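anyone seen this seq b4? input:
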Amino acid sequence: MTVVARWRRWLPRGGSLRSETADRLVLIALALVALKFANFQEISPTIPGRAALYANDALELCCYLAFVVLIALSCRSVLPDWIRRRHPGRILVLSPVVLLVVGGFVLASIVNSLPGDSQRIDDANAMAVCGAQAITKGQDPYQVNEIACLRQLGLSVTLATPLRVGPFAGVDTYPSAARIKAAARSAGSAGSTANVFSGLAKPPLDPVSMIPVASMSSQMRSLWTLLAAAIFAVLLGVAAGSLWAAALAAFLATYFIPGSALNFASFGNAESVAYLLMAASVLWIRRPVLSAVCLGLAVGSNELALFFLPAYLLLCLALDGKLRRLVALVATLALAVVPLLVAYPDAISTIWRNLAAPTFPLGYGPVVLILQGVIKPLPSDLFLAATAAAMALIVFWGRLRPSWRVSAGVLTLAAFWLSWRSLDEYMAQVPLLAVVAILALLAGRDLRSEPLGSSQEVADAPRVTADVSPYRRATPDGQM
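predicted toks r here
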């Protein structure tokens, strides 16, 4: 009986299980499953024929749409009645068990992958490591050659990102490994590969974050980025209050989404630090200075944070401290990023050159139809325009509809599904952003006294059980 009593103290309290926060976290779990199958490419390789190919594409489309809908519903200011009546959050009584199971699988996977070396890095992370090594030697990281970097680290040149210039100018689809190797040899013999392959295309804090472990093994680099993920997990668990087990289980489950912050951290990828900082900026969004500092560091590390900036401003729209937030953001960039841009004058031009360079289509959005040869290649600018329009429409939707504002904020990055290079890591940040937005902006709100933007929401508010705020201490029964 003593053991049972101790176990019960670790379970979420009943009041919290009936809260909307618990219901929202269940929707996030379903969204993670949908996102996992949104890049499920096992049907067409297994079953030959066009029918299997189209079925695979239809499955991915339906799963991605389901993912978007589930995220939007989970972050709505008041959940729809048909969800609240069913109380899906009641199943979170099992969240400690789920946390142990998911955590066990994640830990086993990380431990099994740690002994590997050459497969634990991609070209972007290789450039971060080589850039960090260059900084420690007093050299300009933006002068590092990508092919030379890969060879220095003992990696295959096929990891390099080819540009649609030179030997690749007349190629429509992504070059084969043999063609990339041939181009690397040819360009190398001519004296330079800088114009054929990408270089360091990240802001300067990206390589800076890897300086402490740049000269160490890939295992140590993985442990370094996993340390950042572990610190974030502790902060997330504290913020979640009595729902700590569910929140941590959701965070660990993102490991199985390629390109997520935790997934990248397990491979020692420097980009994971920027993604965790983005999530921290939302987790602490009610603390203007601290939140802005996190976002400023993220912007100085990865361009994706810059695209997230409009969504962040949308999430802050109804919050206090706008001036302090702006000052803190500008000060962070001025103190942490500008000196590096001055020290490395080629940084801005190099980053812009790589961002604007003609690249090959890659990803799992509509561009997959080009990769499969279903349709002829379309201009990359068309995909860029579609992505920009979708992001603008999402932000505009959130501005006009306060009840969907948080949903719009976390879904802004989902528009990258339409892009020319709809890489996993662009969309993979959405679930974690949704989790932290729920804890920071939707949990613990007194819906009975706070207008939500529509008379129907106010009318429904008395039926909503108050959630546990991540910024205030909850009483034992989960009430404020």
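The two ends are 30 Å apart (CA to CA). The beta strands are 362-363, 421-422. kinda curious what u guys think
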